Amino acid sequence: MFYSLRGTLIHTEQGFAVVECGGVGYKCSTSLMTMRELPQLNSEVTLYTHISVREDAIELFGFSTPKELEFFRILTAVSGVGPKVGIAILSEFTPEQIAVCITSSDSKTLTRASGVGNKLAQRVILELKDKMKKLNLSAVSAGAKGTGKLVDFDSSNAGNAMEALAVLGYDNSDVAPVLAQLDSNLPVEELIRLTLVEMGKR
Description:
This protein is of the alpha+beta class and about 200 residues long. Helix content is about 45%, strand content about 20%. Helix 2 crosses helix 3. The termini are far apart.
């Protein structure tokens, strides 16, 4: 029904922002990631939106980028992941970090999001791993570090695995010794998985 809203940001509280368009204030539930990207009050803002219609409520969700909106829709299509959990995951991780977790089968990291237990994290990975590949999200930007470099899961490169792990918040100084002990000819996805297993033992 709505793809986006562009108007004046007139109010924010934890978990939502209000955008005034044509004299009407639209309350948009949103993630912490988007909240951090919002401009000052009374500034112009654009949010990419999704409307959820239930028997007892109509709720509007808004995100700072089309990619975050896309991932919200992808996540909430998973059995057991409702809007609240979808927002919680996007509050903890960027879309790029979520793609890395799913592609590398890292359910442990996903459980850092509020309301996501191990079983649900594994279900997210199971249901979305093939979708990530179809969407060509096996190659993701390491934007969390601001490098603008590409992490290509189709190449066998320890350096790419290190960049992907940096997206998840691991320091290169901690990751490098582990990667150095692995066969650098392994697929990047496998290098990431093995490194996470080893890091989890520490």
